[in-house]
């Protein structure tokens, strides 16, 4: 039997009912935009389903076979070359290059299989994933996130964007830090949140996608990760474009450069950030700080995201943001705003931008940085990310 995620089930029930009610004229004031909202809700549920535990587990477990299928298609394309061109390819060593791709996916499979096995054990799941779609693209992205967050290879990429953020935290007295509650929504594989906790802050990492969560759990668990650089992946093997040499395509990256663990000052909350509530910390409720890194532009509704950041902060709390405005929800995003508009919304919600030490206008400044970059590739994608510190008034 196909297994369906809860949002799909909910919508499978609600959507036809709502349409029926509309048809019967039960909602007097229903407008076209209400219908549109229902359709968006359905898309949102589908989207959430895409990042569900079942979908992620199935994808990690299916990575070896999906990668084999892809390689079979590449071999087939090669086989359609003319005899003369095949000879050129043979002299170049192209068939051996395809064999190397198989070896690389075998290496990656050791990690993806271990992630799937850990997920089955920790969530008490057997192979109950038959209704979910496997997505090799998201698994490949997660492999690159191991490199971005937890390898020596991407130290420079991390330093560039972490430094302005961590410098804000470093200004706070060491004795005060353990009493400061920090939230990092959309934490990905959690490195920034972990770094903040290592400075002594009481840090909550939050993530919605089980592609990220399962990979992060693989690092956090002492059954799968016990020492630095004990795992190896070949994260660039799946992309032959922009590579100077065959060796650089198949190079191995060891990880993690340090071993993260959950602790009394570092926890992970696995759910939609919009469902979180302010921690009860008398006399004032809420986080002292919320830090968003490459996060706010993944919002379906950026206005709701900014409002929620504001709600979760205690009076006097700070919001640190660094990231671009790549509206990744595509047509599902309610609005896609410019930087000026985002800052307008934040100020309208109540935030006061901190101008101290900022060289840009209206309290933000630009940081050039990359994201899951391959340092040896023949292309470079530089984000002109914006960094700001904004305060909720006391
Ligand atoms: C572009 S990634 C950035 C990850 C990480 N901050 C980094 O810089 O590597 C955005 C992350 O936000 C997560 N995300 C998006 N919407 C979320 C939500 N409503 N609640 C929690 N996480 C969310 C995504 O799953 C994704 O891992």
UniProtKB/TrEMBL annotation:
Pfam families: CARME. One of its GO terms (molecular function) is S-adenosylmethionine-dependent methyltransferase activity. InterPro entries: CARME, SAM-dependent_MTases_sf. It comes from the Eukaryota. Keywords: Signal. Residues 1-25 form the signal peptide. PANTHER family: CARNOSINE N-METHYLTRANSFERASE, PTHR12303:SF13. This is Uncharacterized protein. It comes from Piloderma croceum (strain F 1598).
